[in-house]
Design brief:
181 residues; alpha+beta; Ubiquitin-like (UB roll); Translation Initiation Factor IF3; 2 domains; five-stranded mixed β-sheet; four-stranded mixed β-sheet; 4 helices; 33% helix; disordered N terminus
């Protein structure tokens, strides 16, 4: 077991598990200079010496390649630029929120219009809407009224969004999902 390095003794940099200089465990690596020129395949100690000549670090950029690919670069600057890119990507990431609107088979016209305005507002702000019809007590025998309400909602907001699926019944509820266009 002399030549084997235990996995617990390997130190990685942060979450990204990027190996730098002496942390690289491969026997030989393909080395790329800081300006993108391929320097060829060499052993890790020789590659580290080459990186020190440039005053930079040897960073493993493609560990799964055969042989692994390492680049000569300033590691601190690389980490900083990577964190900036990650933050920009995180800001541009769109989060979809699911909003829920509940109706009953006996929902009156004014209440229907009020809830419909909320559905339209949610769809305009690019949120998904879950429209739920809740049946209580003997209302369960009027499933057709619930279906009519969901079809009416679908037709009233047709220009802002569309139904993802047909209304489906789960126990005492009827559900329809709507997505913005």
């Amino acid at each position: 077991m002399e030549g084997v390095i235990a996995k617990s003794s390997l130190r990685y940099d942060g979450k990204d598990k990027i190996r730098v200089n002496n942390q690289i465990v491969a026997d030989s690596v393909r080395v790329i200079s800081s300006d993108g020129e391929q320097l060829g395949i060499m052993t890790v100690p020789v590659a580290i010496e080459r990186a020190k000549e440039y005053g930079m670090d040897l960073v493993e950029v493609a560990p799964k390649a055969n042989p692994p690919v390492c680049r000569i670069m300033e590691f601190g600057k690389y980490k900083y630029e990577k964190s900036k890119k990650d933050n920009i990507a995180k800001k541009k990431q769109a989060t979809v929120v699911l909003k829920e609107i509940k109706f009953r088979p006996k929902t009156d016209e004014h209440d229907y219009q009020f809830k419909l305005r909320h559905i339209m507002k949610f769809l305009e702000s690019k949120n998904k809407v879950k429209v739920v019809i809740r049946f209580r007590g003997r209302e369960i025998i009027h499933m057709d009224k619930g279906l009519q309400i969901l079809q009416r909602v679908r037709s009233d907001v047709a220009e802002l969004g569309s139904a993802d699926n047909e209304p489906k019944t789960e126990g005492r509820t009827m559900i329809m999902m709507m997505s913005p266009k």
